[in-house]
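Lab notebook: predicted structure, single chain.

Context: the supervisor wants predicted structures on file for every construct in the current expression panel, including those that have not yet been purified. This is the next one on the list. No modifications to the sequence; it matches the entry in the shared construct table.
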Amino acid sequence: MSYYQTIHFIIFILASLVVNSSEIIDYNIRGTIEAGWEFIYDLFQSNFVENRDLGASVAVYHQGKLVVHLSGGWFDESRTKVYDNNTLQLVFSTTKGLVAVAAAIAVQRNLLDYSSLVTRYWPEYGQYGKENTRVSDILSHRAGIPNVAASFDDYLNWTTMIHKLEEESPSWLPGSAHSYHSLTYGWLAGELIRRVDPKKRSLGKFIQDEISSPSNFEFYIGLPSTEEYRVSPHEFSQLSQHFNDESLNAMMNFFNEISSHEAEIPAGNGISNAYSIARLYSLLIGDVDHGKYKRILNEKTMKLATKSNTPDGELDLFSQTHTPFGMGFMLFDKTFPRLGQGSFGHLGTGGSVGLAAPFYNLSFAYVMNRMEGTISDANNRFEPMLTKIINKLNK
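Prediction complete. Output recorded below exactly as produced.
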């Protein structure tokens, strides 16, 4: 069955669950799938059958070819609009992988050096104990500024956040330990990229000009207002709602607002879809579309970007979990060992993910609008897919 024939295969399959002897539910699952990959359809459908997802999308590239591209469910809780391949989704920390790519492009062009002091590019940063911070410290969550006192309004103003970071004192000696910089990572890395960019573009503009547009996909940091109608709002699962506090609910409300979509909050407000994220990661490990689109980073740069900067056995200072990082990428050799040596990518709060498994010449992405509060619940959506994919490729 050819790729294009599979369009008809999916369109005429009814994604259904027999609730009783007569009732059939259509989960709106549509898209394309190559022969031999139909098991992804079944697993994707089960996420709706078992009420893990409201609306979601999954995409897989193998050997530079799109083999799975499915969307399904509902755009929002009203269930009046289908979640389809035109839908865009805020993907929270999955955005960090894109920022890592932007930084690596600057390195590849000799504009930025991972081993250099931050003050070489951003002199104002060298204050209050941050003088010896290196670029690698910022990108691998070792900068010592995992948080900064700021309001939601502050998040919307790039200049305000940069001044706050310049005046912040580190919580530990930069480079001596690591802890996840959930939001500060984006402004820190983004300001470095902005400083070394000869055109002095904003990070979002740099990404559109140098990554998304040339590679023919959509991944926005700073959403154009013309695309807002396509963005599916997030909501917490019923189970998560029982454990949420007011601060989590306030954060969710903030990230669902138009103003937060249009701002540049590069650690967490990227807006994309599964197709685009899987395509991004495929382009990090090879060409796509029969060589029409060339890989974004060369092999030398990718090795630098995905080399661990987290000492073996070192735990995150605050979460006390083992979280190895390269230059902005999560490294999955130990957390998802089935993906093979050198796998990398980034997870996003609530269940989104983008990753590459170079050993298998594979990339994978999953995005959704229903947030799960625990990592295990969030990962349950896509881990069975990855397991079956690797089993298939190992045969």
